[in-house]
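Re: beginner question about structure tokens

> Can someone show what the tokenized structure looks like for a real chain? I only ever see the sequence side.

Sure, here's an example I had lying around. Input first:
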Amino acid sequence: MRRMKPLLPLLLSLAVWAACAAPVPAHASTSPGTQNSPSAELPTVAAIDVARYMGTWYEIANYPNFFQRKCAAGTQASYSLIAQGEDAGRVQVLNRCRRESGEWIEAAGVARQLGGETSPRLKVRFAPAWLSFIPLVWGNYWVIDLDPAYQLVAVSEPTREYLWILSRTPQVAPDVYEALLQRLVAVYEALLQRLVALGFDVSALKKTPQP
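And the corresponding structure tokens:
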């Protein structure tokens, strides 16, 4: 937006981004998760309601990657609309996670949509604003699956090299555990089946510990 991969800027932001969690896709030369490197374009959802997408998402699982290597638990992404300044109308991205020591680390970025106001394809940068004119500082953030209640989402990028599954809830309260968790689990299982159909190796997903 975010992963909303979640990007590996190739310029000044590399060191910061490598130390932080990010559900925003990165560029790399090898693929940790795809099975057959499908040549067909990766499909996305038809549209997203950006306002509904805002807020905090918790990472449930991902393809392990280099730039989240210092994240031990609690990986999350918060999105909010920017109202003023040169990035007005875009989305503020804040990615956070905890190290083994318990310390929080974070990285802030900006996302812009490609296409209309409901486009599920975005570009995200974590490099300084003055580098925005350089294409390489922007990475792809594609919403490839989103349940109607905006509770569970899958984010990837065109090469299928990175994949994040995010949820609105890191845990389910005891009094609503059965009803809500069963629904989320059902959605999650259906999501995995659709990801397999899209050419993803879901066995490569690593679950993210959440407090």
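Each token stands for a local structural state, so reading them left to right follows the chain. The chain has three helices and nine strands.
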